[in-house]
Amino acid sequence: MIEDILVTGPPWRTRVAIRLHDFAVAGDGTDVYTNRAIAFLELRWGRLVVWEDYEDTERSAEWDSRRGPLPTCERSCGNAAGEAMDRAVGPVRASPAEGG
């Protein structure tokens, strides 16, 4: 659930910060997973050029291990989602922290 969106800057360097709360609730109403995250985006003339996510990765990994493997479509449809994203936003550079 998105809690807040902050946008600043001119069209040639628009910066966006999104704060969100990710969670899962069991059928009986108990919380089985909760995590908070921040996404930082930078756009140039409406085109996404930077996307950085900040979240508790240990909490996410623990949830993934409890959930087990999810079905994928890689065998039947290749990497269509990733290819569609590349076409939509173009190559995204790594953040300076990642050596980009």
Key words describing this protein structure:
single chain; 100 residues; alpha+beta; four-stranded antiparallel beta sheet; elongated; SnoaL-like domain-containing protein
For the residues shown, what is the average pLDDT?
78
Largest sheet: 4 strands, antiparallel
Can you list the strand order of the major beta sheet?
Answer: 1-2-3-4
- Rg, Cα atoms, Å: 17 Å
Strand coverage percent: 35-45%
- Structural class, judged by helices and strands? alpha+beta
What is the 3D shape?
elongated
Question: How many beta-strand segments?
Answer: 4
Helicity range of the residues? 25-40%
Low-confidence stretches: none
The helix/strand order is: EEEEHHH
Number of domains: 1
Number of helices: 3
Distance between the termini: 30 Å
